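Go through this chain for my students:
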Amino acid sequence: MSQNTSTTDHHHLMIDKTQENNGDCNHDELLVLQKKLQNLQNVEKHFPVNLKEKLDFTISPKTKYTSFPYFDFTPYCQPLTTLQQINNEFPFLKNESFDVSSENLTGDKNCQCIVTRSIFVNNSHAGSHADQPQHFVKNPKIIKYRNEHYNGSCLIIDLCEFVKNTQESPFGITKEQITNYLQKNKITKFENIFRILLKTKINTLDENAEWTNDFYFLLKETSSFLVETFPNLILIGIDTPSIDNPSASPIYHFSHGVFYNKGVAILENLNLQSFNGEENCMFGYLMTVFNNLQESEDAIGCSCFYFPSKELTNEFLN
């Protein structure tokens, strides 16, 4: 059964007006973003979504291969009890279960009230997450992106067949590969596309696999091509740990900065394996749910869900 979902969200950007814009940043990024959000309200009103066709694009923060391999700074999510050195120094910092029931007046030995104290170590970019401007810009005008960026109509660009011949690292995605996909699928209504997710993987690694630098990312010129081709773009997502080369530094001077200056939010570490371009509609509705326990100024952990829409696909392709 289909239900109509409105994407007209009237939240505004959280902006710190007392801060001056960073000298290296584009002074027009706020005006650019505000214009895009106005266009968003005009285009995204109501379209049918089948809630039974939900695809889960989330990667757990417990997954090892999605966190940079610097344990002191970027540990994947894990119980603190695995850190024996810390446990020896702070013995009360352990995952333990306790019976907190009051006296059992019935005398029934099978009754109890168990609660578990859980203590985890984590980092803000473990698993699926939304980068925030303070991840790569000092004193940004845009402090935090809001719901409009992460929820609404979305295009999934499946690049697997277009990047499979890239044999050597670094695996930079080129604008030619993006163009080839758009032409093959006859996508031309660029002004009505606000969110894009990029699929680059055919198979998902086991969550116990270790970090590797061999993942696809966006070349800076490709990111520039995307924001120019899609004038109303407000979100880019990818199924790898970063939209930039892991050796890129500072990332503001690469793809992260390109998207920030055009008001485009970033999702990283998505699991798009459940999406099959031959079976699922390339257009649909994206829903992002943030995890308050993994929220920081530089990134917010999240769960992402996708609802394919034949109606929306036909609208964009016809």
User: Anything to note?
Assistant: The first helix runs from residue 29 to 43.
